[in-house]
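URGENT: need a sanity check before tomorrow's submission.

F., can you look over the MFS transporter record below? I want to be sure the sequence and structure line up before it goes out.
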Amino acid sequence: MKQQNQWILLMSTSIVSFMSTIDASIVNIAIPKISRDLSVLNNQAEWIVSIYLVLICILLLFFGKLSDQIGRVKIFQIGTLIFVGGSLLCGLSTNLPMILGARAVQALGASMTMATNFSIITDIFPPNQHGIALGFNSSFVQVGNIAGPGVGGLILTWLNWHFIFFVNVPIGIVAYLLGHHFFPKSKPQSGHFRVDVPGFASYSVMIATFFLTIFWGQVVGFGDLRIVGLMILTLGLISLFVWIEHRVAEPLIDLRVFHNLGFTFGILSAMLVYACGYFNNVIMPFYLQDRLLLSSATAGLILMAVPMLNIFSAPTGGYIADRIGAEKVSFYALFIFLVPEIIFIFVQPKWSLLWLVIGLALFGTANGAFQNNPMIMGNAAPEFQGVAGSIAALGRNLGMAIGLALATSLLYFGISLRGGQKTTTYPDAHPDWFVAGMHFAYTIALSMILIAIGLLAIVLVKKRMVKNKTL
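Structure tokens as predicted:
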């Protein structure tokens, strides 16, 4: 394939990646307006956000497996069209059932593109360019994850909420046409596809139970006996899923992919990093607007330090990864994370805003330099590239969900510890309690980064030992 065509295809897949990830968060800011227009309660309108995330996580592995057998490009292109169609239906929706159905269609298309984009990139680029190519794509994905509220706010400033969805239609069509013209005509990798019905059923219920635990636990508390029961049920379903996958002829996931330590620890470390990233999404807006009393515009500008630095550091990190290895770059990037986490643990309202800007900028730099996708895909054998890409996307979405739950729960637990009473909202009468809760939450985030450092240290030591044995 011509080098020019490779970069056109990379841009096409990255645009679709950006749209499918930003749609997980862009709707949040429009929920109040949607609930008023559709005459529904806010907690009912929240399902517009939840149904998208839950269905994507349920369908990712299915389409990863399917793409390994009938062709990744085909799944990606069909998914792009379905996502565009779902976006159009969302924009045209006039009641809650209609928009929920349209969001389900969107999630179907998004899961097809998320499950295949990484493996397509590794197919069309030579191994010595995987880092920079996946780094370029990662910058779109990561910016999409954190830019939703800002982009949504800009759209809502001038247009109504329907255009949050309509904007995807022309962009998606252009991305599809670029791919249709430039994608190589790939052949299916096998002549059949068998659905692992027991595995898919147990996995789907497991994911649904996991999200029910997350969403309900945030309302009633994770110490509630009902939530503890759901946690136990989720662990039981995980065990059942693994048991089934070891015994069926065509498993949903060939568990041999996890025999590679670099792949398994790469997924776990990526989940930890994405979870830590959501601490900023949840806690920082409160701190900037409610504690420091900054305007939403000023707070938004400060928070833009993360995506702005991320855009530049992701492809740069990928370029370096192509030369020294994705694990090494990611390992070094994790140490950069430590600096902003320490700043956020000790920051006080009397400190200069420059400290927050520096912290967020370093977080964005580290987030982009952390080469989770090249690390994950590089440790998956060629026959596992499709399912590896879907597992990587699943890890990202689960990491964000875990981060959302942890950030919220730890923040209010820390506030409660400081105040000596249970608190589940911003303590207006005691703003210092909030600062104490924030410091507590970021202390846990720091420990999560340290765990990720430990995981990658084990991978690097293991690789060095193998290399020394072969010399």
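My own read: The chain has three domains: 1-194, 195-249, 256-471. The mean pLDDT is 86. If you see anything odd, call me.
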